[in-house]
């Protein structure tokens, strides 16, 4: 009987949206698996596998744009600003490269490694690029940071937003055909915790009618 109330509510509240059947399938599957207000919820990317449903529409359309909007599914957290973000330095061996709380330290380490690598290809060092009169890391970095005096590269790398400096430097080195990166530095990447979804109290009340 409760399923009928849910189906009627979905039809009414969505004004017969195209994804109505998907919404109903998701709600019924959540109810069968006990994914209610007290449950930790499931992620959007795991929706079909976790619930055993085959959706015609994208999970975001079914959940965020419809089921959440009509109050039958809760989204946690409610505000995107409350999502946990992770700063990743994959070249670091510990904690899967997560450097939250150690960003300045990790960025300084990367800057030091980039500068050390640059020094290794400076004139006077024993490298193929220099021996052949080719492009060096200092040339590449001078160009990408718009530095007229190549000797100022070190100071420029250590000034301002260090994470941005690392990423700019690494991208420039990787885009160059003349120089390469080393394994003791790389770009920082950012990963954001996903929303979790569960039946709302309203949905549970309708199922219990």
Total of domains: 2
CA distance, first residue to last residue: 7 Å
Q: Determine the fraction of residues in helical runs and give it as a percent range.
A: 40-55%
Categorize the overall geometry: elongated
What does this structure look like?
With 209 residues, the protein is mostly helical. The chain has two domains: 2-81 and 195-207, Arc Repressor Mutant, subunit A; 85-192, no CATH class. It contains ten helices and five strands, in the order H-H-E-H-H-E-E-H-H-H-H-H-E-E-H. Strands 1-5-2 form a three-stranded antiparallel beta sheet. The protein starts with a helix and ends with a helix.
List descriptors.
two-stranded antiparallel sheet; three-stranded antiparallel β-sheet; Arc Repressor Mutant, subunit A; 209 residues; mainly alpha; 2 domains
List the helices and strands and how they pair.
Blueprint (H helix, E strand, L loop, with lengths): L1 H12 L6 H13 L9 E2 L3 H5 L7 H9 L5 E4 L8 E4 L14 H18 L7 H4 L5 H8 L8 H5 L4 H14 L13 E4 L3 E4 L1 H7 L2
Antiparallel strand pairs: 1-5, 2-5, 3-4
Helix pairs in contact: 1-2, 2-4, 5-9, 7-9
What is this structure, in a nutshell?
This protein is mainly alpha-helical. Helices cover 45% and strands 9% of the residues. The protein starts with a helix and ends with a helix.
């Amino acid at each position: 009987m409760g399923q009928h109330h849910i189906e009627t509510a979905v039809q009414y509240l969505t004004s017969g949206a195209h994804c109505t059947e998907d919404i109903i399938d998701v709600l019924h599957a959540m109810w069968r698996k006990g994914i209610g207000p007290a449950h930790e919820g499931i992620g959007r990317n795991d929706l079909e596998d976790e619930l055993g449903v085959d959706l015609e529409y994208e999970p975001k359309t079914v959940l965020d744009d419809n089921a959440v909007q009509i109050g039958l599914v809760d989204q946690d957290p409610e505000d995107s600003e409350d999502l946990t973000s992770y700063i990743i330095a994959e070249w670091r061996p510990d904690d899967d490269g997560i450097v939250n709380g150690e960003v300045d330290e990790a960025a300084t380490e990367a800057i030091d490694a980039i500068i050390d690598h640059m020094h290794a290809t400076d004139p006077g060092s024993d490298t193929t690029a220099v021996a052949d009169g080719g492009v060096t890391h200092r040339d590449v970095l001078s160009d990408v940071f718009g530095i007229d005096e190549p000797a100022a590269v070190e100071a420029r790398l250590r000034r301002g937003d260090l994470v941005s400096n690392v990423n700019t430097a690494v991208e420039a080195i990787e885009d160059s055909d003349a120089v390469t990166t080393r394994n003791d530095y790389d770009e920082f990447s950012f990963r954001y915790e996903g929303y979790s979804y569960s039946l709302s109290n309203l949905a549970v009340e309708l199922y219990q009618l």
